[in-house]
Amino acid sequence: MNRKVNLLMLLFSLIGGAVGFAFGEWLLHSLLGEWPNIIVVGLYFGIIAFFIGLFCLIAEMISPRLNGSSWRQRYTGASWKLLVPATLVMLFVAGLALEFVYQLDIGGSKPVKDIALVIDHSGSMQQNDPHNKRYEAAKRMIDEMDSDKRVAVIAFDDRAELLQPFVLVKGQAEKDAIYAKMDAIDSLGGGTDIGLSLSETMKQIKDNEDTGRGTMVVLLSDGVSDLNTGQALAEYQQRNIAVNTIGLNLVNGDGAILLKEIASLTGGQYYDVTKADELSFVFNTIYSTIGDRTLITERTGPVKDSSYYMILRLVALTLIGAAIGLALGLVFDNRYLARSFAIGGAAAGLIAGALLETGLTGRPFTDGLCRLLADLVLAGVISLFTLIVPVKESYVPREERHRPGSAGRAADGLAERKQDSRSRGF
Fold first, then answer.
1. pLDDT in tens, 159-178
2. Rounded mean pLDDT of 270-282?
3. How confident is residue 408, by pLDDT bands cut at 50, 70 and 90?
4. What pTM value is reported for the model?
5. What is the pLDDT of residue 253?
6. Using an 8 Å Cβ cutoff, are 246 and 220 in contact?
7. Which of 69-73, 183-187, 206-210, 355-359 has the highest mean pLDDT?
8. Alpha-carbon distances, residue 328 vs 11, 44, 48, 376, 418 (angstroms)
9. In which band, very low, low, confident or very high, does the pLDDT at 274 lie, cut at 50, 70 and 90?
10. Which of 94, 196, 295, 382 is the most core-located residue (most Cβ within 10 A)?
11. What do you get for the CA distance between the two ends of the chain, in Å?
């Protein structure tokens, strides 16, 4: 048993991690939100493992420092056959399973999948938002929604007009249909009846209720309205539906008091806007806090600072790292390498999990750099860990196997090699 390292494998594993990262990022940007998260995350880890395994295999074929020259001469064919099932397939399954566990909602809370946009269309908005930028901001929010989200749009003054019942925004065609209805709204007029708008919104929520989908309301108004908050918000409180409020009032600041109270009583957030140009940013901020999470993206919403999900991410990445290390050992059919790589992978996964937990911010560029660093840590630490956990060549050269006392002729197949008592493979 020796402590040694293949520097060429270290270099190639880092290259493999970088190549896997590039393919993984393309996958995230193309499919996340279009495909189920557990499938996308499983594929992400499978791709990372495949490219790390591929480049490590090439490096050991060029310079068989860890597994021995006899492995290169006789058993590389078996390693190539094991590469895809041991890396891509195994890590896809492991990533899918761990992401499924990470997606479970603890404490009975439901992930927000339904969003009701309730927009003030009263006459006072002629002064607060004469160019109807609140509708443009709402459109941008809808444009960002994933295909599994449903949206409803209610415009109100002293009446409540249902512009769009809850509909699944599966694609651009559905979104364009919603935009057309918003563009066709009647001219401004009337007073401000927030109570009526909340009542109509709750009716739509109950008529389209789905036990597996959480609901959130975004209410934009100047806030100048008579409202019995206890009565108007009772059902929202019972159903744990947060009402996030946006105050756009350039004339009378008293409306902010009511909107703050609505948000506070329902567990929502109040956002004060002094310029209509700021509405798009506020809508985007609200959407980013609805509670989406995966093992490789920022955790948002009520569980953003959850210790449970923090620990779960660390544990999951530790297991992913160990699985990648074990996969490499399977590819080389060497139990000593499997042990060293798996222990190193667990350590690398813990570090990678800590990097993701502290480094993900929701900003695309910095999040990409964070994932790149985590992938490189996984690739590099696994390759270096043979300096800490000693390894041994799996295969004894043929001439040694024919010495007196040897168990006989070396076998070519995996099944036959098990009969050789001196074989050190799996």
1. 999 999 999 998 899 999 99
2. 89
3. very low
4. 0.70
5. 62
6. yes
7. 355-359
8. 16, 17, 12, 16, 20
9. confident
10. 382
11. 17
Distance CA 352, CA 356 (A): 6
Nearest-angstrom CA–CA distance, 233 and 86 = 54
Nearest to 2 by CA among 298, 393, 342: 393
Residues 297, 381, 86: CA angle, nearest 5 degrees? 75
Question: Which amino acid, one-letter code, is at 349?
Answer: G
Q: Per-residue pLDDT for 100 more than 70?
A: yes
C-alpha to C-alpha distance for 216 and 302, rounded to whole angstroms = 12
Which tokens sit at 412? Answer: 């070519």
Residue 56 in contact with residue 12, Cβ under 8 Å? yes
Cα gap 26→255, rounded to integer Å: 46
In angstroms, the CA 177 to CA 397 distance is: 71
Q: Which two tokens stand for residue 53?
A: 């395994």
Q: Where are the beta strands (DSSP E) in 200-251?
A: 214-221, 242-248
| β-bridge partners, 230 | none
**Partner residues linked to 218 by β-bridges:** 117, 244
Q: Give CA–CA dist 117/122, Å, rounded.
A: 15
C-alpha angle 157-163-168 in degrees, rounded to nearest 5: 140
Position 406 pLDDT exceeds 80: no
Q: What's the maximum distance between 2 C-alpha atoms anywhere in the chain?
A: 103
Cα distance between residue 208 and residue 202, in whole Å: 10
Alpha carbons 113 and 282: distance in angstroms, whole number: 19
Cα dihedral value 359, 363, 369, 372, nearest 10: 80
Residue 235 Cα to chain centre, angstroms: 32
Give exposure, 320-349, as e/b (b: 16+ Cβ within 10 Å). bbbbbbbbbbbbbbbbbbbbbbbbbbbbbb
What does the pLDDT look like over 364-405, one tens digit per residue? Answer: 899 999 999 999 999 999 999 999 998 876 655 444 444 444
426 pLDDT tier (thresholds 50, 70, 90): low
Reading the block at residue 102, the tokens are 């990470």
Distance of alpha carbon 251 from alpha carbon 120, whole angstroms: 15
Do β-strands 214-221 and 150-156 pair in parallel, antiparallel, or remain unpaired?
Answer: unpaired
Residue closest to 10 by CA, chosen among 381, 394, 389: 381
pLDDT score recorded for residue 355: 97
Q: What does the alpha-carbon distance between residue 196 and residue 225 come to, in Å, rounded to a whole number?
A: 10
